[in-house]
Amino acid sequence: MKYIVFTNSINSNFNMSKKILSLLLIASLFSTCKKTEVENEFSISLIEMNPTEIIEFEENINVRISYIHPQGFVGFSDPDYLSLEVKDSRLLIPDYYHLIPLSPPQSEVSIKGEILIEVDAPFIFGNGNTETLTFSIRIQDKDKNWSNKVTTDLITVNRQ
Fold it and tell me: If you write DSSP's letter for every residue of 45-58 in order, what string do you get?
């Protein structure tokens, strides 16, 4: 009789261990799903920009950003749709530009890459000999969602 009780005790401990193991497996699956979602968000990041000091009207500003989009919904075939926003910190209203499609039509393919943005040579608005500014950039996808915003380093513009 004691042998049967001992066996039930082992079965009970074994069943409890299986339940704990199952819960741990389920918890680890949920934690890995969250990480994957964060890594696959639509986002951009600033790689580099130059120059940081210019003479007005003489040099363009080059800004290189990287992008990642889990469905590839970046860029539009309609050339009138402006999905790249570039805002000069001295102005209230940003400028918008067209981005061509960066993935094949009618597809949902995760994409990542780089975009080089060349901003026309800034000039001084006021009466001083120098002004400083930054550019803030973001991209809108085909679902009308905006990426995060990236901001360039401080740029100094000197009068000619």
Answer: EEEEEE-SEEETTT
51 cis-preceded (ω within 30 degrees of 0): yes
Contact 121, 27 (CB under 8 A): no
3 Cβ contact list (under 8 Å, min separation 6): none
Model's pTM, two decimal places? 0.74
Q: Which residue has the higher pLDDT, 27 or 118?
A: 118
Pull the structure tokens for residue 3.
């042998």
- pLDDT tens digits for range 68-78: 999 999 999 99
CB 16 within 8 A of CB 23: no
pLDDT of residue 102: 86
d(CA 116, CA 44): 12
Residues in the chain: 160
Q: How far is CA 70 from the centre of its chain?
A: 11
Residue listed under structure tokens 């570039």:
86
